[in-house]
Amino acid sequence: MMISRRYAGPALCVAMAVTLVVWGCTQGDNPVDPPLLAPGAPSTQILGFPVLENNPWNDPTGRILSVAYASGTSLDVPQPPFPVLYLLHDYGSDGKYFERYNIQSILEDLYRKGEIGRMLVVTVDASNAFGGSYYRNSLASGQYADLIMSVVRHVEQTFRVYTQGGRSSRAISGHGMGGYGAMRFAMDRPDLFASVSSMSGPLSFGGSDGRSGVLNWTTEVFRENHVPDSAFSTIFPGLGKRFTNQIIAMAVAFSPRPLEELVSPSQTRFDSCQLCLPKYKGACIPENWWEFYYCKPCSLYESVDPGPATLLFPTLQKKRLCSDSLHRNPAPIGIDLPFDSSGQRSDLVWAKWEAQDVKSLFELNPHVFDSTAVYLDCGDADEWGFLDQNLGLLQAMKTAGQSHFNDSTWVWEQYSGFGGVDAGHSQLVQERLREILKFHDKRFGHSPGPRP
Length: 452
Known about the structure:
The chain is 25% helix and 17% strand. It is of the alpha/beta class. Helix 2 (103-112) packs across helix 10, helix 5 (218-224) packs across helix 6 and helix 8 (358-364) packs parallel to helix 9 (386-399).
């Protein structure tokens, strides 16, 4: 899939059509300022985040930020500082994801029963044109890991947060894609978060055996795109293409690749601006002074041969890119799927995915969670196959000698359905939220103040 300076339009239309289905409109609410909460109502704001400026798909920099809370009163009443749980939403959703699971009511109920103390729960919209960013910085979508760090700074500068508690005042969690993002942030920034939880997250891309996991989606992706009757290059997001949409979003996050390269930095030239007169002593002189802005030095780029697992749109073989447009019009980008047109794993691409995989990263650094409390769960009927992925990570942790699970430090829960409801990926989320809120509360450092 290519993000091109000239060919982005049609792709953007289709990707945005997918987004309207899996993402929904997130820009309809009015900003709330100042961020005061009334009892029973989470604060919902739309804030602009500069880290998302100039992203390749022109996704909005204004993002919904939802703040729920557990407290005996509203946040406009002075009270001791709060610890904060950063709660990351799943693929295909937005900053209001956990409001749909009644996060505020759950917090109030647990607080009233004395099962948790005071806390803030913060969710930000980290969706993109492909339905989900996986909370990673990517040249094909934007700086979504930086977005979360921006949210942490904003919350600690805006709300009464217990910053004196350091990492013990911060926790991070998420569901699905958000579970993956939470685990990655806990691994990348152990100085920031004292506890982490993942609800039904994709934590071992290759599954428990290293060769299943998301690779098992290949058959569904081919079926959704009529491959091999159609060409592999026709794999594209679309309505009803659940597995295609998800794996393309992951490829955008984990395996983008430039499809142009600079021929030579020394081949900068001034002769590509039509408004310029012949050069004078190496300078490009415009006919009129106000045209000078358009006469910037340009560099010669040429296309890179795509690989057998790359999705792209037609591109020019050569093109010039003016320096005044470098940051506004990125070079064409392809994305590599982890399998090729024959359905076989692409080892070169898979190496990129493993470099972003929680299980693989843990095996490289088995002590990464030594000072972090960990909670993992997954339902036994998860339709994405994430249970096997969680079991793969769990086995790696046990192999590394990390036997803390089900004691006071680490928790693993494989749960089943009840009351006629299967334990699928999006079922029983409210029940799981109750468990993770209690888990993190026990590990928070609380400032002196009231408890229920």
